[in-house]
């Protein structure tokens, strides 16, 4: 580590007005895009690649990293306020974020999400700066065996996010896994359950399904409550004097932020994993080791902090294999790879030899992007929190239109709009009968990853699945997965026992 060059690079980035302005513009655009269901950070980065063509490398990278970090936080805004995750990785945030809004704590939930996103991003940036070669070396040891067990580890979190009934959570997860079988087989391209509908060849589009399950289902439920005269107008009763969490809240959530940031960075560094997996793993991990697991899912800052820190920790993690090995960690860094190549720089091991000043300036740009996201978030918290005070008869039509437009914008397909509406009805019915929706989403994310790596591993080992025992990292993931399942079941029984005692005392 060349400390002198590192400090010079940070000084060059933070003192360059063009870099600072472009990074703040990127962060603002990312937050606004991320808050719109269907408009992901990947889409925002891809849209602005042409605009960065005429810029120098670092201002253009600052712009794109600003969108990246801003979009990661922006997805939590709609998840917290209207139960509609703006990005897939914000789906875990609504588990506790939306109940906080229902309690009249929208401003607090937003400030916790913003602070946790910033801290998670800083953790990811620091790990990227000081440990990127080491983390990249470990990440590249992940073969199909390790990826399979990582997917299994992710699925083990389903028990922790199932809510009151583990059985209903498993049924929801099984339904999600069934949905993954629709379309072309990922290995042999065999048609499965498409029923003559060509748009289903690629399976159910993830974003329209996500929007339908959470946003459209909430609109349907809200309209039902209005018809039945049961709808109550939510408002943020708290007076937001500080846009950042108070000292007591920070003391309460810092372990969740630290663990979430580390989990997010590590999983983000594994090519093909990403924030969608990291947020659920972080949530399940933190809930399992909480002293009060019964409070998770009822609207506590810890749940929001655990997911949002992992979410933005992935930004630094995904940059590690990109810079160290030339392998993008997720969809956003794949687009960033194109930006580097467009500027005549090929990321990879030689970049640390031939382009070390550029590498250090990218480190500084990511740190600046997280600071820009924090500033934009602080300026917007009070305004965002007022959204919940809008009359529901006006808010629901707006949510419906924005959600359907978001579903359509992914593939410009009317079929996706139909998928969105269909899963909105399914989500509404499942909520009505208390089947959790988060296990469906986790299964949709991990199902294809699990299937592809299982088939690949078995093929490479001539049908001998037990060859996985020769992969110590994979075995480690399996052991942790079993421990997670056992611990989660124990916790859920403890929660059910406490709730039964409380009901008996009230009765």
What do these coordinates show?
There is one protein chain. By secondary structure, the chain is mainly α. The chain has one domain. The protein is built from 19 helices and two strands. The protein has a two-stranded antiparallel ribbon with strand order 1-2. Helix 2 packs across helix 15, helix 6 runs parallel beside helix 10 and helix 10 runs parallel beside helix 12. The mean pLDDT is 82.
Keywords:
mainly alpha, two-stranded antiparallel ribbon
Number of individual domains: 1
| Strand line-up of the largest beta sheet | 1-2
Number of strands: 2
Can you summarize the main beta sheet?
A: 2 strands, antiparallel
Shape: globular
Q: How far do the termini sit from each other?
A: 65 Å
- Quick check: average pLDDT? 82
**What would you report as the Rg, rounded to the nearest angstrom?**
22 Å
Strand content: under 5%
Q: Kindly state the percentage of residues in helix.
A: over 70%
The helix-and-strand class reads mainly alpha
By DSSP (H or I, 4+ residues per run), the number of helices equals 19
Order of helices and strands: HHHHHHHHEEHHHHHHHHHHH
Which consecutive residue ranges, at least 5 long each, have pLDDT under 50?
none
Condensed summary:
By secondary structure, this protein is mostly helical. The protein has 19 helices and 2 strands. Helix 5 (94-102) runs antiparallel to helix 6, helix 6 packs parallel to helix 10 and helix 10 crosses helix 11.
């Amino acid at each position: 580590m060349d400390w002198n060059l590192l400090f010079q690079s940070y000084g060059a980035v933070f003192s360059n007005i063009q870099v600072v302005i472009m990074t703040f513009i990127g962060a603002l655009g990312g937050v606004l895009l991320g808050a719109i269901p269907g408009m992901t950070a990947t889409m925002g980065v891809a849209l602005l690649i042409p605009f960065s063509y005429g810029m120098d490398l670092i201002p253009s990278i600052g712009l794109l990293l600003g969108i990246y970090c801003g979009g990661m936080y922006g997805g939590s805004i709609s998840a917290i306020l209207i139960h509609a995750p703006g990005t897939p990785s914000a789906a875990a945030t609504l588990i506790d974020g939306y109940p906080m809004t229902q309690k009249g704590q929208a401003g607090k939930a937003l400030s916790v999400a913003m602070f946790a996103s910033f801290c998670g991003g800083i953790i990811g940036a620091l790990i990227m700066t000081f440990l990127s070669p080491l983390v990249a070396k470990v990440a590249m040891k992940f073969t199909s065996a390790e990826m399979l067990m990582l997917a299994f580890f992710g699925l083990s979190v389903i028990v922790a996010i199932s809510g009151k009934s583990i059985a209903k959570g498993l049924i929801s997860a099984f339904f999600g896994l069934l949905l993954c079988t629709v379309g072309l087989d990922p290995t042999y391209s065999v048609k499965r359950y498409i029923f003559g509908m060509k748009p289903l060849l690629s399976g159910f589009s993830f974003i329209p399904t996500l929007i339908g399950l959470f946003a459209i289902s909430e609109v349907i439920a809200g309209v039902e409550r209005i018809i039945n005269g049961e709808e109550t107008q939510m408002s943020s009763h708290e007076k937001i004097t500080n846009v950042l969490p108070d000292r007591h809240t920070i003391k309460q959530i810092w372990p969740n932020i630290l663990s979430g940031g580390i989990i997010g960075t590590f999983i983000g560094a594994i090519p093909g994993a990403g924030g969608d997996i990291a947020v659920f793993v972080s949530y399940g991990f933190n809930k399992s080791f909480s002293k009060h697991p019964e409070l998770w899912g009822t609207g506590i800052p810890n749940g929001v902090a655990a997911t949002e820190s992992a979410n933005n920790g992935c930004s630094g993690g995904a940059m590690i294999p990109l810079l160290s090995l030339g392998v993008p960690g997720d969809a956003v860094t794949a687009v960033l790879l194109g930006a580097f190549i467009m500027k005549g720089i090929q990321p990879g091991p030689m970049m640390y030899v031939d382009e070390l000043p550029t590498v250090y300036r990218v480190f500084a740009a990511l740190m600046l992007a997280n600071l820009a996201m924090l500033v934009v978030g602080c300026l917007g918290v009070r305004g965002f929190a007022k959204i919940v005070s809008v009359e529901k008869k006006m808010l629901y039509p707006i949510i419906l239109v924005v959600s359907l437009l978001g579903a359509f914008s992914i593939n410009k397909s009317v079929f996706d709009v139909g998928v969105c509406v269909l899963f909105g009805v399914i989500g509404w019915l499942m909520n009505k009968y208390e089947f959790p929706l988060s296990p469906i989403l986790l299964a949709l994310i991990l199902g294809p990853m699990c299937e592809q790596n299982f088939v690949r591993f078995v093929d490479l080992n001539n049908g001998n699945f037990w060859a996985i025992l020769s992969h110590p990292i994979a075995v480690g993931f399996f052991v942790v997965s079993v421990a997670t399942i056992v611990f989660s079941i124990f916790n859920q029984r403890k929660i059910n026992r406490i709730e039964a005692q409380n009901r008996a005392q009230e009765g």
